[in-house]
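Lab channel / #folding
Pinned by the channel admin:
"Please post every new chain as: sequence first, then the structure tokens as a reply. Keep commentary short and put observations after the output so the thread stays searchable."

First post following the new format, from NK:
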Amino acid sequence: MHYLEKELNELIQFWDEEPEALRALRSDAFKQYKEVGLPNRKWEGWQFTDFSALEKTSYRLASPGDLPPVPETLPTIANCNRILIINGHFQENLSVLSDKVTVQTLQHAYATNPEIFNKTVVNNSNPFHNLNTALMNSGLAIIVENNAVIDNPIHILYYTTGLTEPIMNHPLFLIVAGADSETTIIEHYAGTTNVQYWQNVVTYINLSDNAVLNHTRIQEEDLNGNHIADTAYSLEKDAQLNAFHFASGSSLYRQNIQVNLASSGASSTVNGLCLAKDRQHLDQQIIINHLKENCSSNQLFKYILSDSSAGVFNGRVIVSEGAQKTDAQQTIRNLLLTDKALAHSSPQLEIYADDVKCSHGSTTGQLDKNAIFYMRSRGIDVQTAQLLLISGFAKEVMETITNTNIDTYIDEKLTTWLEHIGVTP
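Reply from TO:
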């Protein structure tokens, strides 16, 4: 994609006060990207997704001129601290945070803590991750203090609107949950525009010893958007992660999720719900690395696919040698609402220890005709019966959302989505 190098050179000139080491980091990452290019169908783990649409449009990096007036109506979740970013630009004056949370620009974070950048960006085999390192033009470092208990969730809203020509953003979020802290973070991407755009996001989250983090990621971009993401979690001793990934937007969506259970006693629950219609393509790959003993992980991902949409899920649990007493469970379930919808799912286990409890499974099917017939025999019309079955299928995976306001928001999105595909009472 010829436009990328041009944007990199202009970015370096625009941020002419960047440290030389950061410029070198950008250049090295772009060199790694150029060596391999975009993934294609011959790459293992990428074979079900076509990224050629990203080559058909010349995107430029968002500039200060792309910041419109703040919309009067924005997606809102009740009782939250807020970090607002519009078209890649941090709206500090409209953001509200606890005094136990520090927010830094990427330049400031690199100047004060360059090692966290090096952990995040060096020697990555994902070309989109390398592009993010080269072109990162947005994002923040968010640090929760040790022993802090943040009562209200931190809602990061990354909103795209009012575009006049195709833009791209490459946000990097570095999130550190301090030792013995307890936090809920909502990472939320949304948009409304008639112009194409591309988000290429990297999020690195470190949970220190005994930290508890509830992380909800909501992707409801405009259908003119393409959303590529790389999300990595690292859990230290006795840390607990409860993550929920919701996706219903963008025409092309690919997310790589990696969880490293890096110290004994760490535990993770990573669940997800994907809703696709029209010709949307939603693709997720998740790798859980059990690196130490006495760690547990649970995954439950569900896809509901309508029209000619496609859902892809590749999940792999790797239990390293010496990671004894591992408990790992992985389940993927696909619900196809039409004959043209497609689902590809592949749960996998790699086990190099002998004292473990691991299981995985995958199912794909359509609505149960017998269940619909039973409900109709009790006086329930067919559309209501379908709605009840689909809602029940989806809400099982939402049970791990611990915050009532987040659960309400996603439930409303599910209801609206069902109305738009014609499944209504």
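NK: The chain has eight helices and 21 strands.
TO: also worth noting, The longest strand covers residues 182-192.
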